[in-house]
TrEMBL record:
InterPro entries, alphabetized: Peptidase_S1_PA, Peptidase_S1_PA_chymotrypsin, Trypsin_dom
Pfam families listed in its UniProt record: Trypsin
GO molecular function, one term: serine-type endopeptidase activity
Organism: Adhaeretor mobilis
Parts of the chain that traverse the membrane: none
Protein name: Trypsin
Boundaries of every Peptidase S1 domain copy: 15-118
Length: 159
């Protein structure tokens, strides 16, 4: 998901279309560095694609948005936001909700765009490529329900 301003789509963060009117995304995708809601004139771009910067998507205006009430900034509070769109999305596939239970040690699939980089390179410029991986669940923070997984490469101990 990203914002569209002046005909240019800007990456904001990975998102999930949870029904034809609602999108779940990261709160930081909506908040500017000054802590205020980002300003954009042409709405949001939501789509399913391997590369956000070049891929297809559907642009719409959100009529309502809700930040998690405990979100303060990146790394400080639940980084979640819901966006409501009066007009339904028609070209984006809905995500099926998982209704099972999870336990530490279960395999966990993760998909998102995120910012590339490693400890040796640091953060690299956003390239718009979708990334995916499978990891094992290392913790569940109760009662909130956050899930935790550590990212380690094959050469790192404990991989």
């Amino acid at each position: 998901m990203g914002t569209v301003d002046g005909g240019v789509a800007t990456f904001g963060g990975s998102s999930v279309l949870i029904n034809e009117h609602w999108v779940l995304t990261a709160a930081h995708a909506l908040i500017a560095n000054d802590g205020k809601l980002k300003s954009f004139s042409e709405g949001y771009r939501v789509g399913v694609t391997d590369n956000f910067l070049n891929g297809l998507g559907e642009n719409q205006h959100a009529t309502e948005w809700f930040l998690h009430p405990d979100y303060l900034s990146i790394g400080n509070g639940p980084d979640l936001a819901l966006l409501y769109f009066s007009n339904p999305f028609t070209t984006v596939i809905l995500t099926q909700m998982y209704e099972g239970s999870v336990q530490v040690g279960n395999a966990l699939s993760m998909v998102g765009y995120g910012q590339p980089g490693t400890p040796s390179t640091g953060l690299l410029p956003i390239d718009g490529n979708r990334r995916a991986g499978v990891n094992s669940l290392s913790g569940i923070d109760r009662p909130i329900g956050y899930i935790e997984a550590e990212f380690r490469g094959p050469s790192e101990s404990g991989f």
